[in-house]
């Protein structure tokens, strides 16, 4: 019988999901720091050489740092959306955020995927949904028949949402992505961090959407300007550059990511 095994992330690691079916595959690999244990935990469930593919939901190191080690141990193909692929392929330690974890991103040979790509395992048939916002190449995997969503860092359970203030992140894209996910029928929801839920996932996603839209324009202004001010930018110079007007013209309501217990 097909099943999805959850390997909860240790430390800063993302969750790792193992889809056990006729054609097994792994979603996300955590960092390199716990690679040996993560591989051992997967091997306790299935022989490593039976795993055909490793799917990365986005470029960030806490999801991709172990990809090279997993690929070597399993002899598996690594899949990632085209917009995030190059950062993983060349081992870009800046755009993947590996430097923030005091590590380097290992180079990985990857196969690129786009919106609509299908991963059929037997009983599951996952379709790639491009959900940018956390990163430009973030994706979610959706199985309509089983109403199952693997959401990466786009949404989390209990109304959590991914950060948009990291390289290639974008609030407007994230809002649109969460709106798309909120229209799906979702039972089991498997996020990149935090515990999954096995039913009523749609309610958690709609809560995430409310958290993105329930806050004031001033919150958006502060969330956009705070990193600039922390870098020593002068408020008068920001006004001269038109940064404040750029925010006001967007007319969006949002929530600062610090209010949520979310991963990177």
Number of domains: 2
CATH topology description of the largest domain: Metallo-beta-lactamase, Chain A
- Percentage beta strand: 15-25%
Oligomer: single chain
Unreliable residue runs: 247-264
Tell me what you see in this structure.
32% of the residues lie in helices and 17% in strands. The chain is of the alpha/beta class. The protein has 2 domains: 3-213, Metallo-beta-lactamase, Chain A (4-Layer Sandwich), CATH 3.60.15; 217-259, no CATH class. The strands form 2 sheets. The protein has a 6-stranded mixed β-sheet. The chain has a 5-stranded mixed β-sheet with strand order 7-8-9-10-11, with helices on one face.
Salient structural properties:
single chain, 264 residues, alpha/beta, Metallo-beta-lactamase, Chain A, 2 domains, six-stranded mixed β-sheet, five-stranded mixed β-sheet, 9 helices, 32% helix, globular, disordered C terminus
Question: What's the short version?
Answer:
The protein contains nine helices and eleven strands. It is an alpha/beta fold and 264 residues long. Helix 5 (171-182) packs antiparallel against helix 6 and helix 7 (217-230) packs antiparallel against helix 9 (243-250).
Q: How is the topology of this model organized?
A:
Layout: E1 3-7, E2 16-20, E3 25-27, H1 35-45, E4 53-55, H2 61-64, H3 67-74, E5 77-81, H4 82-89, E6 111-113, E7 118-120, E8 125-130, E9 139-143, E10 148-152, H5 171-182, E11 189-191, H6 201-213, H7 217-230, H8 235-241, H9 243-250
Parallel strand pairs: 3-4, 4-5, 5-6, 10-11
Antiparallel strand pairs: 1-2, 2-3, 7-8, 8-9, 9-10
Helix pairs in contact: 5-6, 7-9
């Amino acid at each position: 019988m097909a099943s999805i095994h959850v390997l909860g992330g240790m430390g800063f690691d993302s969750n790792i999901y193992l889809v056990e079916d006729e054609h097994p595959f792994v979603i996300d690999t955590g960092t390199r720091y716990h690679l040996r244990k993560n591989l051992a935990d997967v091997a306790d469930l299935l022989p490593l050489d039976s795993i055909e593919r490793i799917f990365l939901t986005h470029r960030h190191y806490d999801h991709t740092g172990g990809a090279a080690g997993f690929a070597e141990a399993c002899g598996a193909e690594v899949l990632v959306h085209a917009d995030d692929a190059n950062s993983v392929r060349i081992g870009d330690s800046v755009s993947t955020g590996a430097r923030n974890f005091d590590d380097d991103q290992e180079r990985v040979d990857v196969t690129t995927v786009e919106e609509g790509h299908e991963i059929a395992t037997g009983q599951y048939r996952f379709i790639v949904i491009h959900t940018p916002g956390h990163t430009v190449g973030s994706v979610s995997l959706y199985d309509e028949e089983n109403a199952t969503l693997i959401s990466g860092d786009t949404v989390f359970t209990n109304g959590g949402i991914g950060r948009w203030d990291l390289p290639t992140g974008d609030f407007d894209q994230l809002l649109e992505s969460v709106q798309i996910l909120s229209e799906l029928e979702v039972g089991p929801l498997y996020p990149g961090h935090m515990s999954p839920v096995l039913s009523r996932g749609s309610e958690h996603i709609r809560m995430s959407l409310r958290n993105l839209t329930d806050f004031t324009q001033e919150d958006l202004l502060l969330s956009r300007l705070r990193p600039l001010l922390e870098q020593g930018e002068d408020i008068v110079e920001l006004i001269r550059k038109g940064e404040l007007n750029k925010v006001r013209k967007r007319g969006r309501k949002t929530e600062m990511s610090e209010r949520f217990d979310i991963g990177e």
